[in-house]
Structures are given as structure tokens and as C-alpha cells.
Design a protein that fits this description.
Helix content is about 50%, strand content about 10%. The protein is an alpha/beta fold. The radius of gyration is 18 Å and the shape is elongated. The relative contact order is 0.11.
Length: about 210
């Protein structure tokens, strides 16, 4: 009988597995099983090398569905994400994302559908890598800015933590507009705009408060 598995990667203490599961369930997903890697970096560790991620290759088979929060959960860069998705699709596994509700069908009915699907995979994988690189650079710049002025007044505590900031960046990268992202995260439009337009400042605020 076909099964549905939700896979989560929780890379820092600021991220929360329960939140990711609740977000998926609120989007209408139901799972037979939840598998998660905690404390694992997606930037440096391929899915097949993660303790729980590698189990997916044994557990999933033709007709099954893999649900992930976003495609960046499945690899560390463009090539890794693309290869992982295509490997599952070749085995007849359908992949669905919570953010934007995308479906990558493992059994397209004609070559044109397959070509469109593969083009979308490439675009989404490239977007995931670009976001990861931009986030890493913003984190570095924010930390350096906070270190440069160690005794400085920290200012108002941010209304977001690192997990929520990541959610904002994922939503915006996947095509959501500012207003929809604000509603989805419970943040103000001004805060979402700050994260989008001045990521170094947003990261510096997190660093100053140790969030």
C-alpha cells in the first residue's frame, strides 16, 4: 500500500521539528511516518550521508510520496538537490513541498510533462542554493557587524528568531509576496521587508541578542 513520509532537517537549536510538522499538517498534509535529522547541516551533508536521510532510500518505493518543507531539505547545493530529486522520481516516488504546494510527479504521462517537471526541478534547486549562499553571507556579515561594536546598545529585541527568518526567506524565494509572507509568519510587513532588503542588519540583530 502506498505510503507518505514527511522528512525534516533541523539544523540548529533555533529550528523546531514540531513547528515544521504542524506547518505541513496545517497545509493539508497527512503522513504515515515522520523522519527527521536534527543537528545536521544541509550545506555540508548530502541526504544520503545523514543518519535518517539515508533511510529514505530504503523506505520509499514506487507509488510512495515524500513530503518536505522545501527542496533545500534534500541536498546541499544545486547538483545535490537535483540528483536526489531525480533519483527518487526514477523510482516512482512523488515529491511534494509544503511551501508553495509543489508536486514533482514520478510518473509523468508524456515527454512534455517530464520536460516541464525537470525544468522546474532545476529552477527550484538553483533557487535553494542561491538562498543558502546569500543566507550564509548575510550571517557572516551580521556576526562581524555585531562583533565590531561589542558594547553597543542592542536595540529592540527582534520579533523573529532564526527559524522564522529562514521561513520568510524560503517563502519569498519560492514566489510569495511580502503581504502573504507576513500573514504566514505573523510578522509585520516592515519586518519582512527588512529581512528581504537588509539581511545583514536582520542577521546582526539576531547576533546581538544571541538568537
Amino acid at each position: 500500500m502506498p505510503k507518505t513520509i514527511f522528512y525534516a532537517r533541523v539544523s540548529t537549536a533555533d529550528q523546531n521539528l514540531d513547528h515544521q510538522v504542524a506547518q505541513a499538517e496545517s497545509a493539508g498534509f497527512a503522513f504515515d511516518r515522520v523522519i527527521a535529522d536534527e543537528g545536521v547541516s544541509g550545506v555540508s551533508t548530502p541526504l544520503a550521508d545523514r543518519p535518517q536521510g539515508k533511510r529514505l532510500f530504503d523506505l520509499l518505493s514506487e507509488g510512495d510520496t515524500l513530503v518536505v518543507r522545501w527542496v533545500d531539505r534534500l541536498g546541499r547545493n544545486y547538483q545535490d538537490v537535483s540528483d536526489t530529486i531525480r533519483q527518487f522520481l526514477r523510482e516512482g516516488v512523488t515529491i511534494k513541498t509544503v511551501i508553495n504546494g509543489l508536486t514533482f510527479d514520478g510518473t509523468p504521462s508524456d515527454p512534455m510533462q517530464e520536460a516541464v517537471r525537470d525544468a522546474l526541478i532545476g529552477f527550484m534547486a538553483a533557487s535553494a542554493q542561491a538562498q543558502a549562499e546569500a543566507t550564509k553571507e548575510a550571517q557572516r556579515a551580521g556576526i562581524e557587524a555585531a562583533k565590531a561594536k561589542p558594547g553597543r546598545y542592542r536595540g529592540t529585541k527582534p520579533s523573529y528568531d532564526r527559524a522564522k527568518m529562514e521561513t520568510v526567506q524560503n517563502l519569498l524565494t519560492s514566489g510569495e509576496n511580502v503581504s502573504a509572507t507576513a500573514r504566514a509568519t505573523g510578522l509585520t510587513r516592515q519586518t519582512v521587508l527588512r529581512i528581504r532588503d537588509r539581511p545583514e542588519e536582520a542577521e546582526a540583530a539576531l547576533a546581538r541578542w544571541g538568537l
